[in-house]
Amino acid sequence: MIASIPNIYAVTVNWNKPDDTCECLQSLLDIEGYSTTIVVVDNGSTDGSAEIISKRFPQINLLKQTTNLGFSRGYNVGIRYALSCGADYVFMINNDVWVDRDVLNYLFQYMSSDTGAVCPLIFYASSPDVVWSAGAIANPLTLEVKDKFANHPWAPRIATTFLERDFVTGCGLLLSSKALLGIGLFDEHFYLYYEDMDFCFRLRKAGWRLRVVPGAKMWHKVSRSSGGSGSLIERYWMARSSIRFFRKHATWWQVPFIFFWRSGSALLTTYRLARTKRWLSIKAYWNGLKDGLLEGFQKS
Fold first, then answer.
1. What whole-number percentage of the chain has pLDDT above 70?
2. CA distances from 15 to 63, 129, 192, 249 (A)
3. Helix, strand, coil: what percent of the chain each, to 5?
4. Same domain, yes or no, for 56 and 152?
5. Tens digits of residue pLDDT in 76-88
6. Is residue 3 part of a domain?
7. Is the pLDDT at 145 greater than 80, yes or no?
């Protein structure tokens, strides 16, 4: 629980999605209980997004980039700006979400001195009562994370306070500046996907707690910037970034377990895409795995 009034910066990244971003910004402006300074990093948009956003929301801080920096680098631009302005906390949030008015009231109830990040309970925008993410617990053998509440309607009796987690999604995170300064920002080698898992694993290894607060609610449109789940971009970068993540965090004794688990996962992913005749997505997925492996060999 935070006693004094914190200096909070909300950071989001836009890439050619001004309508989604404006909806997100309006929900941030409607938050009750805490005042936030809003930062939008425009990630090299080519559709006039920056002008649309700045015209509609002149009070926000717009950091316009000339190229698409990807997730990690884009958010790091905004986070660095927030920290340079003296932010105590950074509320990083995807631009394809909207939040409940009381989201920060709930999150700050469980932001203790040993907590690095707290996350809202996140629902599908298309199914507002169905959970998209409630955080996850990591398997100690395979490093896979499992969210047992995902894709199910939320039952309030399950948890009324908070859930301790090994992983909380970067879709919406309230981050302590002390944690950010302690472990560093997002690893910019992750262009898209797995950067939040890497970040959470680094937080946990440094001793910080991660929490999901069910009272804090958010709704997510899911993979809008990458073209949706199963798209070529989503499949390619999900595959490639997974190789980088496991190479970075696996110990020698975990490698056999990860290899067999991920091999089965790759075959299952291929089968699911084949059932819907998404042949180009299959090609993109296997190209991502190949490029991830080649990247590892080049660094070794």
1. 93
2. 12, 28, 13, 30
3. 40, 25, 35
4. yes
5. 999 999 999 999 9
6. no
7. yes
Q: What is the pLDDT of residues 20-29, one digit of tens each?
A: 999 999 999 9
Q: Where are the alpha helices (DSSP H) in the chain?
A: 18-29, 49-56, 70-84, 103-109, 177-183, 195-205, 232-249, 255-275, 279-299
CA-to-CA distance for 78 and 81, rounded, in angstroms?
Answer: 5
What is the secondary structure of 228-282 as a DSSP string? STT-HHHHHHHHHHHHHHHHHH--GGGHHHHHHHHHHHHHHHHHHHHHTT-HHHH
Same domain, 26 and 147: yes
In a domain? residue 227? no
pLDDT band at 1 (very low <50, low <70, confident <90, very high): low
Indicate the pTM of the whole model: 0.91
pLDDT, residue 300, reads: 47
pLDDT at 3 over 70: no
Cβ-in-10-Å burial (0-12, 13-18, 19+) of 223 comes to middle
Q: Count the Cβ atoms, other than its own, within 10 Å of residue 163.
A: 21
Residue span of the structural domain in which 128 resides: 8-220
Is the separation of the CB atoms in 76 and 52 below 8 Å? no
Of the chain, the percentage scoring pLDDT greater than 90 comes to 89
* Residues 292 and 191 reside in one and the same domain: no
**Structure token digits, residue 106:** 């709930």
* 28 and 138 co-located in one domain: yes
Say if residue 202 is in the same domain as residue 270: no
Q: Quick check: is 137 in a domain?
A: yes
d(CA 60, CA 45): 17
Residue 37 maps to which CATH number?
3.90.550.10
In a domain, 293, yes or no: yes
Q: Which of 168, 196, 220 is the last residue of a domain?
A: 220
| Domain count across the chain | 2
Same domain, 74 and 185: yes
Among 77-91, 124-138, 156-170, 188-202, where is mean pLDDT lowest?
156-170
